[in-house]
Every structure is written in C-alpha cells, then in structure tokens.
Amino acid sequence: MKCTVSIRALCVIEYEKYIYLDVYKTGSAHLKHLLPEITEGEQVRLRRHAPITAARPYGWTGGKLVFVTVRNPWDWYTSLWSYACERKGAIWRFFSEALPRDELKSMFNTEDPVRSFEKWLRAVNDKDFMQRVIRNNLPESGLAGIVGLYTFRFMRVTTPYPTVFLKSWLVPSIDAAIRYERWFHMYSEVLRSESLNADLKSFVAKYRQRCRFKPDAEEIIDRLAAAPRNASTRVLPSFRDYYTDETRQLVADKDRLFLELFGYRFEKPPS
What we know:
By secondary structure, the chain is of the alpha/beta class. It has 15 helices and 5 strands.
C-alpha cells in the first residue's frame, strides 16, 4: 500500500524587519509564540515550515535580517520519533496511512524504544521505503538515501528554490550537500535549540533597533521561557539512550552537515 498524500510546502515567519526560517522540531513552535510578544513591528507573512523563496519568490530576503534555528541531529530524530509515537505530526500521518498495522506498531513501540527507534531510523534513511510512504519532497528530489531526513528538511527551508535545485543531480552526496549549504544558505544568524532562550536574548540585544524588538524583550523571554510548545514526551532520559553504535554512526554519516557546519557531536553539545 502506498500513501496518496503529499507533504505540504515546508517555513517562513516574516516581520517588518526580519525573517525567521522555521525548521520543523528545532524550537520553532516556541519562537512562533515568542516573536509577536517581543517585536514591535507587525507580522507580514506566516507560512510554517516553508522555503524562503516559496513565500518570497522574487524579493528573496528583501534586505531583511534572516535567522534560523538548529538542533543536534541525534536529538532531532529522537524528538521526531517520540512525537510520532504520540500519534502527532506529519511523520505519524504518512506512516499510519501507508503501512499495515503490525509494521506501524513495530516502528513506534515505546515498550521497546531502542529497537523500535532503530527500525524507524533505518527506514527513513532507506530510499525504497521512503517512496512507499511519501509521494514527494525527499523521494522526489532523489536525495533519499543520500542525505538524512533532517538534512533535507533543513536545506529545503534554508536554500533558494529547492523544488528546482535541491536534486540529486546537483547534490549527489553528503559532501556536495555541505558545499551547497555553505554556498547558498540564506540566513546570517543561527540560534541553537539547546540554548534557545539564551541565544534569543543575545540575538535581541544585538539587533534590537534593526529588528524593532521591545525594550523589555529579554524580560518577556524569561517570563515565557518555561512554556515550551509542541514538545514530545520521551520514554528514555536522554536522546543518547536511544542509539546503538550503528545508528549513531548512521546519523553521523547522513547528517554530517550539522557536524561540520555547526559543530554538533553525539557526546556533548557544542560550546
């Protein structure tokens, strides 16, 4: 059985003076809630999880400051899987519509999290499997099996015209993907989900006048910091507990972009 649903365009949250590229499961729901509280300017565009050129096909950045959020790739996958285990999100929807019940249960079994997560992680890195469950985007690009799902989603949001250029003929390897992201990324600032509120306060202090952040923006961030949104509930204490040596290396290979460009490591967060 094959899924007949296609993924909707992945995000641009745009205000008068800046643009936030909303990459799924990187703290974007939290920022979507915070930004209108700390910004004096009006929001002019909202298209969750979309390439910047989908929202601004001709003007691109329009001279606005563009920033993005990133997350440790090993943590990103466990968050995505845990969210699907709660029967939430696009991954759950696509898998549940495409797979028989027994196969679906084996991939989202919180009673055996390490084995179940491993099966799911290998599946999302398998080209033939992904073509079974998703009609477009990653399988359509030809990059399934070449780069990890997180790498693809990140590049799809942060580089121009991904439906045209983010293809295997132009990005035939993870090395090519890293070069492509270095050359064509459309953000100038990066906030890390592991230190999101602290990074946001530093960002606000640096660009207060340019982006029209409120004088008390830092206080507002502190006040609202304890209310994370769209968070998944995990069975095991740490994302590291879900991995075997083999699955740890699988992410290191397929999502090496985050290791090289942002310094992420499995052992500990970057300093």
